[in-house]
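FIELD: query
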Amino acid sequence: MATKKGGNATQQSETVYINNVSLKQKEIGDFSILQFSGNANEVIKQILQHTNEKGYFNFDICERKEVGTYGDTHYMKVNNFTPKK
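FIELD: result
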């Protein structure tokens, strides 16, 4: 796992990627869509694992630098932003 250090405005811990998902950008006519699929049990487990005390989860969908072997154009990671107090 990659580690990121917090800056002045935020505190962040290490980067946590969401596994067992496939994110592919498709162009359909004038529209661009992002297809999301994955193993339901594994994705639900990860959502529950990263749900905060208020019942919310925050994930970022980021564009990959290169298209993956299976056509994946994006990846997901946990958004662990917490304001500095």
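FIELD: remark
The longest strand covers residues 21-28.
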